[in-house]
Structures are given as structure tokens and as C-alpha cells.
Amino acid sequence: MSTLEIRDLHVSVATDDPAAPRKEILRGVDLTVRSGETHAIMGPNGSGKSTLSYAIAGHPKYEVTSGTITLDGEDVLAMTVDERARAGLFLAMQYPVEVPGVSMTNFLRTAATATRGEAPKLRLWVKEVKSAMADLDIDAAFGERSVNEGFSGGEKKRHEILQLSLLKPKIAILDETDSGLDVDALRIVSEGVNRYKADNDGGVLLITHYTRILQHITPDHVHVFSGGRIVESGGAELADELEKNGYVRFTDADKAEA
Ligand code: ADP
Ligand code: MG
Ligand code: MG
Q1: 80: buried, middle or exposed (CB in 10 Å: 19+, 13-18, 0-12)?
Q2: Which ranges carry the ABC transporter domain (predicted)?
Q3: Could you give the ipTM of this predicted complex?
């Protein structure tokens, strides 16, 4: 049983102009994600959803100016990026990076070694990867390709879910995992997330602009993000309301306050 706890989180981002003041993006985020729970974070573009995931992951551009993030009571903000992964946090990036010259299989083994604390035995590892790839309808030849190089949008997303199923984190943060997926890829990726949840009692923070992925992955809690914080929380029915009415009611309230 694990708990990711975010308390009154404020995050600023360094702008390209070094003389300019830092821009505050997150303005007091409170969120608790436990094992076995799925939380959807929804909100308009630019509301700070990705900033939240970068801050949890420890991206150097995003500075936590106040507030806390803990995983099972341990101070996540004091950990390096690697330590966060080892502690059981996983971030699937909105825009995954390319790693030329490193095959998928090797990349995944290195990642697994880092999180498990020892290198998985090669023969077992190859088996494990093959089986996980088959679950995700990924071609075997894919394992020999360089990480993300020339991958289509859908292939990148499947790769992220492949990582998720092999690394078995305690809490997974999935940022716009649904963007750019066709109907079949969306189903396969969603099934991968659901398998991860079921097999590991994993906690999921699912960040998405659109409600369609929530038809495949049922959230226990839905939070609306606007202006750098959670402005409303509810159950799956809140996503249905957003599907009908969009974010207007939240963005208007935000403008009125600003
Ligand atoms: P979302 O994921 O909800 O679309 P983001 O977290 O990407 O929102 O962005 C929130 C706000 O922070 C936006 O106004 C965006 O322009 C700004 N922002 C995010 N990252 C950076 C950055 N690296 N440099 C400058 N501004 C940024
Ligand atoms: Mg954005
Ligand atoms: Mg984003």
C-alpha cells in the first residue's frame, strides 16, 4: 500500500529570459493518490497539468517554491530523478525523448536495473519483455530499434505502457497518454494501464484534456485543473459533465477571480 501526497504545492518555471521574474504556474495543489486508485486530472490547455507531472518527476526547470510531495512519508522533493524512479514513481512524458543508438530492449533493461536495484537475468528478461510486448500488440522487431527514434505517436505511447508494465511502479503518472492515438491504439494502451493496475495494485494519476480515455480507464476521482490548481473534484460523473459542457464554467470563474 503506497500513498503519494501532494500538499499546497507551488511551482514556478524558469523562463527563457534570465532577467525575467520566475512565472508561478502551480498555485497550491493538494492531492493524495493511493495504491489501487485512479485519479484523472482534467483541464484546459495551459492550466498547469504537465507542470504538475514535471514537478513530481523532478524536472530541473520546474522549481517548487513551497509545499510538499511525499511517497509513503518520504520526501520526494529531496530525491534525485533516479531516486524518485527507484522509490516507485513513474512518469510517462507528454513528449518522450529520443535516445539514438540505444535499443529498446537494452534501454528497458537499464531502466529495470535502476528501479529493481539489480540487473534482471538476461534470459528471464528477454522472456518478460517478449510477453509484455505481445500483450501490447508490439512487433518483436521493435525491441531492436533505438528508443523513440522514428517512432510514430502511437508507437511512443505503446512504448510508455511497455515501460509501465515492466517497471511496475507504485504510482504511475500518465500525461496525455491518449493524445494522438487512434481508436485501436487507445484500446490497447488503456488495456495495458488496466493490467498494470490490476496486477500491481498500482495507483494512477491520469492527466488528460479529453474524456475519451476515461471510457476505457474508469477513474475513481476526477479533478478539474484551472489556473494552476484543482478547482473541483468529484467522481466519474464529473468527467461526463465536462464531456457535455467543456471547461467554460471553470475558466470563467478563474477569470473573474484574476
Ligand atoms: P497544460 O499541461 O495544462 O497544458 P502546462 O503545465 O504545460 O499546462 O503549462 C502551464 C503554463 O505554464 C502555460 O502558461 C505554459 O506556457 C507555462 N509553461 C510551462 N512550461 C513552461 C516552460 N518550460 N517555460 C515557460 N513557460 C512554461
Ligand atoms: Mg501544455
Ligand atoms: Mg500538458
Answers
A1: exposed
A2: 4-252
A3: 0.94
